[in-house]
Amino acid sequence: xxxxxxxxSHVSVSEGTPVLLRCNYSSSYSPSxxxxxxxxxxxxxxxxxxxxxATLVKGINGFEAEFKxxxxxxxLTKPSAHMSDAAEYFCVVxxxxxxxxxxxxxxxxxxxx
Amino acid sequence: xxxxxxxPSRVICKSGTSVKIExxxxxxxxxxxxxxxxxxxxxxxLMATSNEGSKATYEQGVEKDxxxxxxxxxxxxxxxxxxxHPEDSSFYICSARRTVANTGELFFGEGSRxxxx
Lengths: 113, 117
Prior knowledge:
The complex is a heterodimer.
Chain A: E1 2-6, E2 10-14, E3 19-21, E4 23-27, E5 32-38, E6 44-50, E7 56-58, E8 64-68, E9 73-78, E10 87-94, E11 101-103, E12 107-112
Parallel strand pairs in A: 2-12
Antiparallel strand pairs in A: 1-4, 3-9, 5-6, 5-10, 7-8, 8-9, 10-11, 10-12
Chain B: E1 4-7, E2 10-13, E3 19-25, E4 32-38, E5 44-51, E6 57-58, E7 67-73, E8 76-81, E9 90-97, E10 106-108, E11 112-116
Parallel strand pairs in B: 2-11
Antiparallel strand pairs in B: 1-3, 3-8, 4-5, 4-9, 5-6, 7-8, 9-10, 9-11
């Protein structure tokens, strides 16, 4: 079995300040982990993914995430928030046999001017 | 990057009618497609997994007779909401994977908002 917990349902930051969106997972297998972003009434866009290569993964739009096996975490960070980063972010784990995907509950990021 | 197209993006229908939503992979062959449902301000709920040429695998609690999924080709999967009711109103999103491997990137459609009156 696998599960994903996004620790914050809402995060609010000021423009230009760092962003931290937290994600913890559990998996019986070696997991692959993804972060997706969803803008209102839109589909999801892949930000970055970890698939057992480098533990620090760089994604699009300045986002990065670090896979920490000892902490079972895959937190998403960005040094400086931009207004256009305001969206819903989903942490996703896949690793069980078959095509099992598990989504976290989502974190809504709000960016204040 | 790969493109997945969903159609229609918005649909309004009367209670009791059926609605078909299409999901197409435009520039790759999708061995596996997934259908999700998203309630307002909630995460995505996987409804079913469809592999080309075989029956869809439904998640627990999803009525297969109500949500008919067909994956007749490597580029097209359809979701038909039969005898729709207001509680079926939701945002439906499909995704496609190019490979069988779990590490394959998922490409998502833009979603279809269904409103049942």
